[in-house]
Amino acid sequence: MAVALEFTPPFEPGIFDFLAARAVAGVEEADSCSYARTLLLPGGHGWFHVAWDGSALWLDHALEDPADAPILLSKVRHLFNLDHDPLAADAALGTHPLLAGRIALLPGIRLPGCVDPAEILIRAMVGQQITVAAARTALNQLVALSTPSRLPHGSMTHFFPTPPELAAGGRDILRGPQRRIDSIVAVARMLAEGSLQLGPVDTQDSLAEKLLPIPGIGPWTVGYVAMRVLASNDIFLPGDSAVRNGYGLLRGDTLAQARTIKAAELARMAEPLRPWRSYATLHLWRAASLPNGQ
User: Fold this and answer.
1) Exposure winner among 48, 53, 125, 258, fewest CB in 10 A?
2) Model pTM score
């Protein structure tokens, strides 16, 4: 039986579109008002489904071990940023002339979290310097390495591949520059061996200390992982092309003009938006995905 999830309104449901654009076939199902996926939990296999009906969020799930229910709930709440106070963030961002209209149009925007830090790091590395669609295709192919679920539900028959599975077979499936493949496989091996560990006890600084020395990982990846693993409120990605394009389109530039904007200008623009720059990033991403930023 589905149960209602508590959150502080308003809730802007665009997070479902974000997750749907990145959904991995066989592991996740998503559309503009629902998201579901398989999960490996301490007690066994499971899945969950979250749906938005316009006023409430409903959670349905199945678990091999009922004792995993609190862990599953915690992961769902983190994924959907349900402990966020949107009123404080919107009030602060709404004072910026470029964002005021977006805040009024999209109150309560949510920062997508994650259900597994190691998974998000691998997904971020696969998606570096390629489109969301291309990254999704690559991730779909990696599911061939993964474990079948004992609780399949709909098209969700497998789990996202674990670090040991990726370390053992990723090189045979990944495509692209050899250096990038080497980096992804090396990180999967480090995660599998435990020499690299990520989690909620980290900070943005500790993530940077762990990740930046690794070949193939730069500041963008660290920032993105901090947003999704730590739910960090104040991450801004001035080198991100969608951030740049969204900013340019909101101020009336053509896309060609927006592409000439420098990271330093974006960083200056975002400075007064502390400590809510992660949510400014989300608004600029959304603006970049629509014609003329509308």
Assistant:
1) 53
2) 0.95
